[in-house]
Amino acid sequence: KAGVTQTPRYLIKTRGQQVTLSCSPISGHRSVSWYQQTPGQGLQFLFEYFSETQRNKGNFPGRFSGRQFSNSRSEMNVSTLELGDSALYLCASTSGTSDYNEQFFGPGTRLTVL
Amino acid sequence: AQSVTQPDIHITVSEGASLELRCNYSYGATPYLFWYVQSPGQGLQLLLKYFSGDTLVQGIKGFEAEFKRSQSSFNLRKPSVHWSDAAEYFCAVGGGNKLTFGTGTQLKVEL
Questions:
Q1: Residue A107 and residue B41: Cβ atoms within 8 Å?
Q2: CA of B35 to nearest chain A CA: how many angstroms apart?
């Protein structure tokens, strides 16, 4: 079974631009969570989608948004990029909503904002 | 609010030596606890998890962790470290597909 895939793997943008990152979960998984990883703040939860609905949201400004499609693929969008948005963005998928479900992580998208 | 503390930012051990990585958590209810490992340029891989039951849990790659409610700890151990274990290790708490991570411990293995 294929793992979680994220595209693109690397991205360079300039301040003020917007960016869209994509995540394809493991086949059959319906929940997708997004995390931001930076050297200063570590791993921080952005949001989680299940069956096209946002279930949980972390403490990030409204510039960060996401969505999930009927095939469970998810995208996250960051508008008006700032230098501090440079990070590794990780997506994780699980099969359901139970607390017992293991999250499987993708390799991440490395975003650099210049 | 839930939180995780990993007090050791860096740890260096010799290959073949034992390892213990510390993790303390704060969680309002029954904690769901996890240890993940991240190699350079890679995503996170789950080593082991604790939900309930036996407080000593076994994971992959020879790792184990012990849940101690009285100390709010979930330390990761390995009896004999291999050079390939060099990576960053994250303890996490949570549920409902929302994890709170510690800041990580970078493990270096000396040959």
A1: yes
A2: 11
Give the pair of three-digit tokens for residue A114.
């210049």
User: How many residues are listed for chain A in this entry?
Assistant: 114
Q: Do B98 and A48 touch (CB under 8 A)?
A: yes
pLDDT tens-digit map of A36-74: 999 888 999 999 999 999 998 999 999 999 999 999 999
Q: Are strands B105-110 and B10-14 parallel, antiparallel or unpaired?
A: parallel
CA torsion, ordered A31, A32, A33, A39, to nearest 10 deg: 150
DSSP 3-state assignment of B69?
helix
Query: What is the rounded CA–CA span in Å between residue A107 and residue A22?
Result: 12
Which residue, among A5, A32, A37, A43, would best test binding to B if mutated, counting the most B CBs under 10 Å from its CB?
Answer: A43
Express each pLDDT in B53-84 by its tens digit. Answer: 889 999 999 999 999 999 999 999 999 999 99
Taking a C-beta distance cutoff of 8 angstroms, is the pair B98, A33 a contact?
A: yes
Q: Rounded to an integer, what distance in angstroms lies between the CA atom of residue B33 and that of residue B23?
A: 10
